[in-house]
């Protein structure tokens, strides 16, 4: 057998990393086939233990931030809670610096069986932080990170990746990681563009191609909703194991091939969460997923609100027990379930049974979007013709705006707000926390039942205060809301710039380019946006100002998730 020198213990010979990988999968992990994915806010200790009781062989921690992990002992303590039953355990980090990652991994290695690097996160936050799937084209950096861990750690380093569209390129990527010292590779068979409503199906073809080209163990991820999918995936791709995320969240017994009533696993989970506490938001998130179909039924809207506002485990337990009391007679057959959920789609099982969450396909999503746009266009045309509701008008800057209905949030001072902010404000205005009935010693906000900000002169909660400040152009020192100050600052800056007539003609062209995009959120190239943030204090920078200040720079208008400049 081929052997090589061990850098950690000179004079000792070790297996090459590919063979170490197989040995690691067999001996340290116990030849696992069923793996529970790393999941932010969801694969916490209590959930991992529940999943292990129901067939999971290996679990991952949620993704941890390597740089925060090394500098913040509190984060470290809270992020890495485990116990003896919680093995084999893989700790996942995101990172973009080999030294920082190594420092974090050295702190975590005594508590786990391997360190995983997240190379699959496709979210905007990963783009901004430069980690996850946004590192997939920086092969020298990845080689550095993987090889640094491989040489210095006493536990193996593993990676979780997404695929490229091109199979050959994907295979080359996997081989590069293997050569750098990665000892197990989890392949999520979707590209980094396949996310949110465009998630679609994962490609097992890509996973199979990787499996056939590397010698380290490969774990398949994507399209796993039930045990039949697991078996099919193992047979079709030849991988060593299969990882589930959403399938596991909606049915923690997925690997047992069992679909239990939701209250059974929910009560078991609540017991575990009592023993191994975690933030209530995680518990609430799990219960919402377990009872997703029941909570969509109109007769359960009150229980749904109860779950949304529950503040401790006893509140959650009470909601679960009420749901159980409601559906147990149907489950036991003493009452007859008609099978009509009235929620507009068909379920494989009755709604109280844990079952997969089936997303609409990207094609359906796009079709719906087009239909919605057409409907909106019809409404706008009707309103314009009849002179009612929203119609388009031009503001002083020549930007086309929707004319708002009177009395709505938009009606007062909306031209400075982005669509996203408007949506948030509208939501807050219409959905204050109606279930807050006041806590002892805490006054209610003047405008809604939420608790008042203790330092707010207006006697409002933060959400209402922000709305008031937007509408009345004011600041709130207590809530540290600086709307008036920022607007004034922006105004002064604009005035100063309009006095300067350098490259005036060029500026006009650029401004038109921006203005022609209407009052939509315009997505700008990240580095330029960051430059704008640093140089001109983002919140005070409008698109127009940005444009004036950067006339020479060619702006990229992207169609992807990057920070948004608010007008
Ligand atoms: C709630 C949630 C949190 C996630 N957090 C992480 C994470 O921390 N690290 C990671 O690599 N992937 C994360 N993912 C992605 C999953 O690990 C997995 O790759 C993806 O959901 C596809 O698997 P599935 O089809 O079984 O859901 C997360 C997914 C979900 C649903």
TrEMBL record:
Task: Identify the domain of life.
Answer: Eukaryota
Residue ranges of region Disordered?
Answer: 379-435
Alphabetical list of Pfam families matching this protein: Dus
Bias-annotated ranges (Basic residues): 417-429
PROSITE patterns the record matches? UPF0034
Family statement: Belongs to the Dus family. Dus1 subfamily.
User: What is its biological role?
Assistant: Catalyzes the synthesis of dihydrouridine, a modified base found in the D-loop of most tRNAs. Specifically modifies U16 and U17 in cytoplasmic tRNAs. Affects the level of some mature tRNA and thereby the total cellular translation.
- Under what name is this protein listed? tRNA-dihydrouridine(16/17) synthase [NAD(P)(+)]-like
């Amino acid at each position: 057998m081929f052997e090589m020198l061990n850098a950690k213990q000179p004079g000792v010979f070790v297996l090459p990393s590919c063979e170490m990988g197989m040995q690691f999968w067999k001996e340290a992990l116990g030849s696992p086939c069923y793996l529970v994915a790393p999941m932010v806010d969801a694969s916490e200790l209590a959930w991992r233990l529940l999943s292990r009781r129901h067939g999971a062989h290996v679990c991952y921690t949620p993704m941890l931030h390597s740089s925060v992990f090394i500098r913040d002992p509190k984060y470290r303590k809270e992020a890495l809670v485990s116990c003896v039953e919680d093995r084999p355990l893989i700790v996942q980090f995101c990172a973009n610096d080999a030294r920082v990652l190594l420092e974090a991994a050295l702190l975590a290695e005594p508590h786990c069986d391997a360190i995983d690097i997240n190379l699959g996160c496709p979210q905007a936050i990963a783009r901004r932080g430069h980690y996850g799937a946004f590192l997939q084209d920086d092969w020298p950096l990845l080689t550095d990170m993987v090889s640094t861990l491989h040489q210095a750690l006493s536990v193996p380093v593993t990676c979780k990746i997404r695929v490229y569209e091109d199979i050959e390129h994907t295979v080359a990527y996997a081989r590069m990681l293997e050569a750098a010292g990665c000892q197990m590779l989890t392949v999520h068979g979707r590209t980094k563009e396949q996310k949110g409503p465009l998630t679609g199906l994962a490609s097992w073809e890509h996973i199979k191609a990787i499996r056939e080209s590397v010698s380290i163990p490969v774990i398949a991820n994507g399209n796993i909703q039930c045990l039949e999918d697991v078996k099919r995936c193992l047979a079709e791709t030849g991988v060593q194991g299969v990882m589930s995320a959403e399938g596991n969240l909606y049915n923690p017994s997925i690997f047992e091939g069992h679909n239990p009533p939701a209250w059974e696993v929910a009560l078991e989970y609540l017991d575990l969460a009592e023993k191994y506490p975690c933030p209530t938001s995680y518990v609430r998130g799990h219960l919402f997923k377990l009872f997703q179909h029941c909570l969509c039924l109109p007769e359960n809207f009150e229980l749904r609100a109860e779950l949304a506002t529950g503040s401790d485990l006893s509140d959650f337990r009470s909601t679960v027990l009420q749901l159980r009391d409601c559906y147990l007679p149907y489950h036991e057959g003493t009452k007859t379930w008609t099978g009509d959920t009235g929620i507009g789609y068909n379920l494989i099982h009755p709604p109280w049974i844990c079952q997969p969450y089936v997303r609409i396909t990207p094609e359906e999503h796009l079709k719906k979007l087009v239909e919605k746009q057409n409907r909106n266009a019809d409404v706008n045309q009707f309103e314009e013709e009849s002179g009612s509701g929203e119609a388009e008008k031009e503001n002083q800057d020549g930007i086309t705006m929707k004319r708002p209905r009177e009395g709505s949030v938009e009606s007062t001072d909306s031209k400075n707000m982005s669509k996203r902010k408007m949506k948030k404000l509208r939501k807050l205005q219409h959905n204050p926390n109606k279930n807050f009935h006041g806590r002892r010693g805490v006054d209610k906000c003047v405008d809604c039942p939420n608790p008042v900000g203790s330092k707010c002169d207006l006697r409002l909660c933060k959400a209402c205060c922000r709305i008031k400040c937007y509408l009345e152009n004011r600041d709130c020192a207590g809530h540290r809301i600086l709307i008036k100050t920022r607007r004034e600052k922006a105004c002064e800056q604009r005035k100063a710039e309009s006095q300067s007539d350098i490259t005036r003609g060029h500026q006009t062209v650029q401004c038109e380019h921006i203005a022609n995009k209407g009052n939509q959120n315009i997505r700008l190239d990240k580095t330029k946006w960051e430059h704008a943030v640093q140089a001109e204090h983002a919140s005070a920078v409008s698109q127009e100002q940005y444009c004036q200040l950067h006339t020479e720079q060619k702006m990229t208008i992207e169609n992807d998730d990057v920070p948004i400049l608010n007008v």
